[in-house]
């Protein structure tokens, strides 16, 4: 039977057509593909230039001296912690580490714009968000050293932090799993009408995972109060952005999902702060997701398992380290206002290093968790197979006692 399609035009005219999405699309009679560059060149929102000058006074967030000093102290403390834990791994004291060098502005600017009750889903390179929320150095160290004070009971690889008290969901390694989880959590938050938002951090590499699509689409269609925060730092391990995607980065994808989107200079802590604050306000007030793409640069190696000199030049890294660094930019801003001097810098560097070293030495001295904890917390009652494994473990440890210094473990 030949299909009669004359009804399509009639019902479209009557706005009853279910065959196309609700849009103002018209029918045309010329065959033309949409050029991808129609949505390219999304501008980068910036408040401060590289010398720390405010470009347009109307965009100055006018934060107090105390707040700005706190930003700076958190950004530099993160840097110091990174240096010491990175070195610890090189010396074989911990098994693994990931630094946050160069991305400090994205962490602190976004964290400061949130409410402490907002729920955070991180990827793994957002330690500054947790630090801004008040996670103590002792707990960062306890996690990386997997000692008896670790909230995760020593079960995770280093940098897989989590804190129920600080509304920071525990990091998991498989890329992008946090994205649909954040969409689900934001949907729950909306149903509770709790005046809360959810923020979900991810790298531009993770945005290539199928889970990113699922999370974006669910949150847009379910109208969830969620801020997707992409840290576009130029690389996914050795894959540079020009091999990662075609099209205009991650921000360009937002409109395709019906999401409000913005690209910001991630090395400008005030631009990140303003964009996140406004996205957070509107996400909660209007129940809809927002996408922020923060342009930044990963100055460190991907992790301690990577050597980035194999795929990028020293000159490239030096450029970002010396010419366009979020910390130096903020420092210029503070210095210009007479809020920070060379003396302040020297004193703070010394003091922050001392504080980090104390936490590090304490973590190293602390006992490891009781090995029994490997078997608990999944099931309310130990299952027979787990019990068998547990007995086998202790038999093995007894047999090869000389290799297992049990006095270093919590009883
Ligand atoms: C599903 C999955 N595939 C691959 C990996 C290995 N992997 C770990 S990090 C990473 C790169 C991620 O890059 P990006 O999301 O841009 O974040 P960045 O490390 O640059 O902060 C890859 C491929 C993984 N952890 N999970």
Automatic annotation (TrEMBL):
Under SUPFAM superfamilies, the record lists: Thiamin diphosphate-binding fold (THDP-binding)
- Name all Dehydrogenase E1 component domain ranges: 73-372
Which one Pfam family would you cite for this protein? Answer: E1_dh
Q: InterPro entries, per this entry?
A: Alpha-ketoacid_DH_E1_comp, DH_E1, THDP-binding
Q: Which domain of life is it from?
A: Eukaryota
GO CC annotation: mitochondrial matrix
Q: Which reaction does it catalyse?
A: N(6)-[(R)-lipoyl]-L-lysyl-[protein] + 3-methyl-2-oxobutanoate + H(+) = N(6)-[(R)-S(8)-2-methylpropanoyldihydrolipoyl]-L-lysyl-[protein] + CO2
Enzyme Commission designation: 1.2.4.4
The GO annotation for biological process reads:
branched-chain amino acid catabolic process
**Compartmental location:** Mitochondrion matrix
- Co-factor(s): thiamine diphosphate
Q: Which GO molecular-function terms appear in the entry?
A: branched-chain 2-oxo acid dehydrogenase activity; metal ion binding
Question: Which terms are listed as keywords in the entry?
Answer: Metal-binding, Mitochondrion, Oxidoreductase, Potassium, Thiamine pyrophosphate, Transit peptide
How is this protein organized at the quaternary level?
Answer: Heterotetramer of 2 alpha/BCKDHA and 2 beta chains/BCKDHB that forms the branched-chain alpha-keto acid decarboxylase (E1) component of the BCKD complex. The branched-chain alpha-ketoacid dehydrogenase is a large complex composed of three major building blocks E1, E2 and E3. It is organized around E2, a 24-meric cubic core composed of DBT, to which are associated 6 to 12 copies of E1, and approximately 6 copies of the dehydrogenase E3, a DLD dimer. Interacts with PPM1K.
Q: Family, per the entry? A: Belongs to the BCKDHA family.
Its biological purpose is as follows: Together with BCKDHB forms the heterotetrameric E1 subunit of the mitochondrial branched-chain alpha-ketoacid dehydrogenase (BCKD) complex. The BCKD complex catalyzes the multi-step oxidative decarboxylation of alpha-ketoacids derived from the branched-chain amino-acids valine, leucine and isoleucine producing CO2 and acyl-CoA which is subsequently utilized to produce energy. The E1 subunit catalyzes the first step with the decarboxylation of the alpha-ketoacid forming an enzyme-product intermediate.
Name of this protein: 2-oxoisovalerate dehydrogenase subunit alpha
Lineage here is: Eukaryota, Metazoa, Chordata, Craniata, Vertebrata
Provide the gene name from the record: bckdha
